[in-house]
TrEMBL record:
Pfam families from the UniProt entry: AMP-binding, AMP-binding_C
A molecular function (GO) term: acid-thiol ligase activity
Organism: Streptomyces poonensis
Domain AMP-binding enzyme C-terminal: 408-482
First and last residue of the signal peptide: none
Domain AMP-dependent synthetase/ligase: 26-357
Identification of the protein by name: AMP-dependent synthetase
Stored InterPro entries: AMP-bd_C, AMP-bd_C_sf, AMP-binding_CS, AMP-dep_synth/lig_dom, ANL_N_sf, ATP-dep_AMP-bd_enzyme
Amino acid sequence: MAEAGERGEPGEQFPGLVLELLQAAGGRTVFEHGDRVVSGAQLLGAVRRVTGALREHGVGPGDGVALLLGVSPEAFAAVLAAHVVGARVVGVRPGLTRAQQAHLLADVAFEVTDRSGERSTGRPGTVVLRLDDLLSAADDGIRPRVTARPGDVARLIHTSGSTGVPKACAQTYAAMTAGWALRPDAWPPAIRELAARLDRFLVFGTLASQVMMEYGLLALAAGDTLVTADPPDLPGSIVRHRATASVITVARLTKLVAGQRESPVDLGTLRALMVSGSPLRPGRLREAAEVLGPVVFHGYGQTETGMISMATPEDVPGSLGVPPVELAVRDADGRPVLPGTDGELFVRTPGQSTGYWQEPALTAEVFVDGWVRTRDIGRLDGEGRLWLTGRARDVIIVNANVYYAGPVERLLATHPSVAEAYVVAVPDDSTGEAVHAFVVPAAGRVPSLGELRRLVAADLGEACAPTRLTLIEEVPLTPAGKPDKRRLAAGA
């Protein structure tokens, strides 16, 4: 397995390479947004204006900047500008509760927003900057000077944490510079094949998405065009925008395949769909290939690590290809296991996070001696291909986002009709997985699914709310006397 340094050394500090790409693009279209086409030179001009305005407001290296932005060329420029000045960037995705949003914004001094009339729940004194105002600043025509410092945190990438509030993976500027996306000489074979198919890459949702931003940068490095679609009504967006590639969840892929079987439309431009966020069963992959053709790339990665491995359409269904990063399979005592043997996966990637922001105990548990514990179970076969076989952590993956079972169970147990509560993941065609709650009722009471859903949604968000409820007299136990969730899941 190649070491990071053997795959090509990074050049100028991030985002310097992005500025070079935009400058080299010149008059070539790099973004299509509605009826507008934006060239590399125009996008670079927007970066210059926002950078200058941010510096005028006193934003500099190490400052926390929250970005409440959609997907547009201007939003992309704002993300780059915040990195040019060396800020600690916090992306705020839609759908968070007010309490979760307040948690995300607790350490930021500035907010940049394009959301009309929306203000955050951050601490008093936060400076709110409207993107339109920043873009109205003068353009000096000079390439912005990158003042990011290698050891500073470049961005906080949030996921759902064990406490029920988002936890933040801290990625430094050095890690972003070392990442593979912007350096063709460092592209693993699967990424090289994917990059050749991007051409017109469909972006949607939010640039706070690590996956969306990563593949957006890859498209720029490949000399391709980013095309916005919001909301992404597949397959309509592919047809309207003549898209060749996009990111898709397992649930969206399932829906797209079913729709194409029932009422097919011409998807002749489509060359690549990158599935990420949750496992794709071999049967689903074969069905997608039959209906859509050889277009599915199945990625495996984590917020903590970025991409770990990717299967191309030519790979064996169920495998995740040969990992291009350092990966070790270890037993419960931390010892390496033989090929073909299941164990916990530990990885080292060039762009991995340094830990969880302001959570030293959790950081020590997951980031061990330079390795990241994935808390996933898998194996490497004799040819070095990766296979996932289970999880070492109690999570539910809804719409490609990871949610821990513990906070949901603790919240359900506060309901007056609930004596005990246990939740497991169940397959769901709409969201990939969903929450199934098993509840021991309190004496003389019978909880309803509706009231339990409202309780969870109000505090943890809709994604964590149970979609199914089973009342049980007592929870089954393992031989060690612990709740046996495998037996619960088997009966779900």
